[in-house]
């Protein structure tokens, strides 16, 4: 921060963090019990898989244009709509007792979730000015990452506590009510975001896809692939490894998940000590570091719980660094569109990784499958650094002043 420059006033950041915390709390509470809800209603495995697949497909369809809708019609408006639709989906899912309304709830959940993603951060980052911009954007994204990770802790804890006196479907219903309340409060909690009335959604999508296909975003896109692979291995493998080592006690799994979620939040918080002016170095380093304890724990060279917690900490660090990097690269005018297109790439990698890992696990065993995907993640992450130096434009952050920003943008910034 420059001498004499007043620090960003905290209220807007606090509201941003509270909304991130609340939304993730509801999401984790739902995620912890929705399979149980479906099985208790007599849903057979085939129908369960088909229901999730349908909702995922609708979510993917919503993800691609969701960012362009936010940039076109305003981030606050789409945030509110997304949270209400997402919450309505949870509420319907929790209330339903037949397949048709359950499916409708699942579709609303997926569509609403993907409509809201990226809008909250875009609302706040777009109010950061040009002075000390790198540090300010890094601070905003770090607050969001830490709040989201703590929301995961709160969601898991709420299920453990409230689950003793609330049924699983009522927990889902309560999560939906929380999201609807957040959606209705969003217009009161956040400043207006007028959008770009003269631009079409299709035009924004074409513009963003062309930008991401250019050299400037190559290292960022490659980082998405490597970081997503490391994350997928951790998400898939921790439960089978814990079950093999300690048995299948679900309560113990809950304690492990709480510890891992806290480690994820701690890693995100520690991103403040990294140099955000060089994310092309720190983010791939964080990706590579995440793979090491996972590899050692899989082969018994490191105690399993130590390896999982350490990997989760390093993953939280890498994800926070990446979040700051991408928002420093995106323009204010197309921030949400660029975010959604990049998220779509990540979702595609997730789908491919799940398919490949399942085949490799069955063919070679879990340790070898983990080693193969982690090795691929390391190789991809290692390619980011030479790519960043081969394409110098990929190391230049977006500058709203140079891009013809408004007088307000050229001031110290409007983040409160």
UniProtKB/TrEMBL annotation:
Transmembrane regions listed in the UniProt entry: 16-39, 45-66, 78-96, 102-125, 146-165, 171-190, 217-242, 254-274, 281-299, 305-325, 337-357, 369-391
Keyword terms: Membrane, Transmembrane, Transmembrane helix
A GO cellular component annotation in the UniProt record: plasma membrane
MF-aspect GO terms: transmembrane transporter activity
Subcellular location(s) of the protein: Cell membrane
Highest taxon of source: Bacteria
Protein name: Predicted arabinose efflux permease, MFS family
Organism of derivation: Nocardiopsis flavescens
Upper lineage: Bacteria, Bacillati, Actinomycetota, Actinomycetes, Streptosporangiales
């Amino acid at each position: 921060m420059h001498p004499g420059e007043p620090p960003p006033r905290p209220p807007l950041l606090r509201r941003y963090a509270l909304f991130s915390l609340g939304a993730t709390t509801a999401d984790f509470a739902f995620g912890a019990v929705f399979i149980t809800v479906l099985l208790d209603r007599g849903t057979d495995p085939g129908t369960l898989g088909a229901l999730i697949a349908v909702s995922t497909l609708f979510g993917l369809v919503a993800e691609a244009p969701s960012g362009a809708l936010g940039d076109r019609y305003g981030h606050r408006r789409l945030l509110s709509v997304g949270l209400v639709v997402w919450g309505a989906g949870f509420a319907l899912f929790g209330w339903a007792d037949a397949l048709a309304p359950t499916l409708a709830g699942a579709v609303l959940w997926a569509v609403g979730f993907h409509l809201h993603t990226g809008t909250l951060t875009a609302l706040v980052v777009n109010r950061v000015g040009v002075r000390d911009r790198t540090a300010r954007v890094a601070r905003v994204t770090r607050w969001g990452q830490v709040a989201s990770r703590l929301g995961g802790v709160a969601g898991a804890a709420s299920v453990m506590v409230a689950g003793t006196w609330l049924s699983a479907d009522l927990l889902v219903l309560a999560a939906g009510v929380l999201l609807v309340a957040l959606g209705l409060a969003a217009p009161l909690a956040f400043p207006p975001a007028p959008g770009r009335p003269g631009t079409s959604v299709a035009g924004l999508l074409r513009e963003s896809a062309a930008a991401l296909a250019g050299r400037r975003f190559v290292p960022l896109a490659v980082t998405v692939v490597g970081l997503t692979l490391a994350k997928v291995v951790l998400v898939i493998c921790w439960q089978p490894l814990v079950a093999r080592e300690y048995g299948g006690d679900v309560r113990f799994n809950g304690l492990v998940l709480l510890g891992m979620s806290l480690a994820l939040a701690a890693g995100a918080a520690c991103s403040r000590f990294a140099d955000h002016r060089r994310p092309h170095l720190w983010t791939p380093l964080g990706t590579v570091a995440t793979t090491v304890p996972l590899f050692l724990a899989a082969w018994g060279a490191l105690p399993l719980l130590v390896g999982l917690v350490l990997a989760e900490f390093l993953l939280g660090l890498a994800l926070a660094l990446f979040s700051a990097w991408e928002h420093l690269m995106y323009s204010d005018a197309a921030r949400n569109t660029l975010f959604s297109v990049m998220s779509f790439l990540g979702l595609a990698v997730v789908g491919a990784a799940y398919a490949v890992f399942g085949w490799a696990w069955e063919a070679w065993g879990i340790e070898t499958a983990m080693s193969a995907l982690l090795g691929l993640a390391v190789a991809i992450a290692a390619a980011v650094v030479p790519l960043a130096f081969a394409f110098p434009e990929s190391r230049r952050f977006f500058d709203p002043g140079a891009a013809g920003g408004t007088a307000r943008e050229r001031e110290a910034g409007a983040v409160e």
